Amino acid sequence: xxxxxxxxxxxxxxxxxxxxxxxxxxxxxxxxxxxxxxxxxxxxxxxxxxxxxxxxxxxxxxxxxxxxxxxxxxxxxxxxxxxxxxxxxxxxxxxxxxxxxxxxxxxxxxxxxxxxxxxxxxxxxxxxxxxxxxxxxxxxxxxxxxxxxxxxxxxxxxxxxxxxxxxxxxxxxxxxxxxxxxxxxxxxxxxxxxxxxxxxxxxxxxxxxxxxxxxxxxxxxxxxxxxxxxxxxxxxxxxxxxxxxxxxxxxxxxxxxxxxxxxxxxxxxxxxxxxxxxxxxxxxxxxxxxxxxxxxxxxxxxxxxxxxxxxxxxxxxxxxxxxxxxxxxxxxxxxxxxxxxxxxxxxxxxxxxxxxxxxxxxxxxxxxxxxxxxxxxxxxxxxxxxxxxxxxxxxxxxxxxxxxxxxxxxxxxxxxxxxxxxxxxxxxxxxxxxxxxxxxxxxxxxxxxxxxxxxxxxxxxxxxxxx
Length: 467
Known about the structure:
By secondary structure, the protein is mainly alpha-helical. The protein has 20 helices and four strands.
């Protein structure tokens, strides 16, 4: 019986990330690590070259049963012991001598941690590709609406005028920040893990010394450098400074980058949900048959893509915190802390992978309605630009007096439903310095945008391939 098909996590159901971080993907990565170890040891003369070849041939046609290994894993509290037993059995059917060199000098944590780094690298590559698609789509949207004026909102209320292009620029900025962190982790902070039983590398050194090969008299540091260098190159992972069994920084770095990415995607989603409200409808999600339907209300078209993204963003920080907590690993290998990392880390990858994939679709089809933005902007009847009047009047009337006058005028405009410009024009103190035409001109939203139209250009200057 399959426990989880994504029924309760639709954000990642059916997306490519499911295959990239499945049980089978982890098993395949563990096989890759074991084969890389055998090949690296063969190249360095630690095991016979023919032995590594036979191990590779034997494993090439075998398919491991994840459910069987999962059940067997309860006996050792990790999946590697049962996996290695199966691996040795498979190789023994081809060559019993070669089977003796399977997992030569290694330990469970070496294999699982390094396999995790392989899985993470592939998952991050997929997430980065989806972020790139979102960034490209939003870049075009922001450029098209660089001058589309809308109401900026602070604490849910109209604040000052901005542009929709500036709003989009804030989304792109967050995604670019996330992309940089993911790239940094993927390319520099996913190291192999090879330290032997307690991170001393003693078993690998002993295997090399007993081999009779070129490294049989080499010092331990040289064997470590040579073997880990070969393994890192074989697996396209970072070499690392030293074994990190009890130092879980690589996992914490990965979890942190995923949490930041989920937050950047969530910010985008929250704004889309808000701007999609019936009374606003400034933006709308791409239309697809059956999407956004309600089981009870025929008229509804819910912002489901943004909802899926937001749901993931609300879960990832808590999952990542478990990975951070696992940094409190006692001694050279923890009883429980290491084991606690695996599931929440995979859930983070699944949720962020699903979220990024969904965001790419949302970004590509997101529609903006400038006319709605304009009508909503007009609701303030000029009050949106009262900050500008405050700046103009302060040198003339003093800060406290000008603020009180503008506040009183705004409240009167609200109560009477009149434009702010008309109320201000009736104030003798203001009329002494500004005539009605000047007041109206100062309260035009499109003339008080500051840097807003340029923000999309500033943000996109960071985008790869742009100048």
